[in-house]
Design the sequence.
């Protein structure tokens, strides 16, 4: 079917998805994911897709962003402490329904740090041995939950705090753990 038009199935799929040869698989992970979710939310909320409204919505979305997504927002200038401002490099193409992957390609040319952002690998709290993790990783778990460990001086303090909070933030993992 695709052979008649001269396009291979893979190339046709790449065209439809907005994929191109310049972005490798997994590259610009945070950019593609964040902007993909953002664009989807704009469509679901039926936001008027003009550049100004998109920019306002992007600034609002970035104010709630955490972690790597907040860093992405900083790089495009959508946070209050950002030094540069290339938000229009996102809002204008989105108003013309340019695929998110293409937008990220152009952002990569402007600032290569944007495509170097990667999401942290999620730990399986139901099977990981907390005693074998580094304190840095234990702190990161608490940070992802929006918690802190005041007065924690030793690794065992962080482990205790995580096991206390696990039923609240990771109930499935808390049920399957046998060391509680």
Sequence:
């Amino acid at each position: 079917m695709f052979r008649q038009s001269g396009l291979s199935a893979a190339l046709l799929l790449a065209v439809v998805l907005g994929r191109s040869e310049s972005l490798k698989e997994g590259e610009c992970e945070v950019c593609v994911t964040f902007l993909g979710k953002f664009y989807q939310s704009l469509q679901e909320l039926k936001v008027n897709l003009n550049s100004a409204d998109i920019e306002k919505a992007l600034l609002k979305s970035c104010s709630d962003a955490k972690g790597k997504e907040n860093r992405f927002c900083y790089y495009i200038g959508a946070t209050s402490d950002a030094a540069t401002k290339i938000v229009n490099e996102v809002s204008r193409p989105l108003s013309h329904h340019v695929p998110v992957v293409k937008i990220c390609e152009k952002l990569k040319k402007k600032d290569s740090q944007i495509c170097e952002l990667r999401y942290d690998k999620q730990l399986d709290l139901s099977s990981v041995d907390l005693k074998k993790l580094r304190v840095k990783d234990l702190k990161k778990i608490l940070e992802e939950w929006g918690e802190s460990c005041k007065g924690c001086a030793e690794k065992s303090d962080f482990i205790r705090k995580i096991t206390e909070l696990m039923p609240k933030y990771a109930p499935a993992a808390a049920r399957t753990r046998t060391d509680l």
Q: What stands out?
A: Residues 1-21 have pLDDT under 50 and may be disordered. The chain has eleven helices and no strands. Residues 130-176 form a domain with the Transcription Termination Factor Rho, Rna-binding Domain; Chain A, Domain 1 fold (CATH 1.10.720). The longest helix spans residues 29-44.
